[in-house]
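We give its fold:
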Amino acid sequence: MSCDRVGNLLLTKFANQGAADVCVFIPASIVFWLLKHLPINEDPALQPPPPGPQITQMDWDSPNVPHAFTVNCKVLPGKISMTFNLDRKPDLTVVLDRSNVELMRQIMLAYSRDLIDLEAL
C-alpha cells in the first residue's frame, strides 16, 4: 500500500497466486470503514505473511488502475473475502488469510494519519 494525500486514497497492490498482481485505488472512506470492521489479531503466534509486491511510480501513473467505489466483506474460516466494486473494471474479489488481513489492517492504520476521514467531520 502507498498513500496519496492529495487524492485522499491508498494505492493497494494485491499479489495473486498464478496470476499478475492487481492494483486498485482505495478511497479514505473505505479505508476508515475497513479499520472499524476488520478483526484485530488476538493470536500472538500468528506468523507474518511473505513480503508483498512493491508499488512503483509506474503503478501510480498507470491510467488502467481502477478506483474502488465500495467493498463487501465476508468472514470465512481463517480468511476474509473482500469484493471491491470498481469504476472501470469488473468487480475484484480477493481472499486474504488472517496474517494478510492483520498486515493490511496495520498498514491502513499507519496511513490513516495521512488521510482525511470526511465522515467524521
Observations:
- Residues 83 and 93 are 4 Å apart (CA to CA).
- The two ends are 25 Å apart (CA to CA).
- The first strand starts at residue 2 and ends at 4.
- The beta strands are 2-4, 9-14, 22-27, 68-76, 79-86, 92-97.
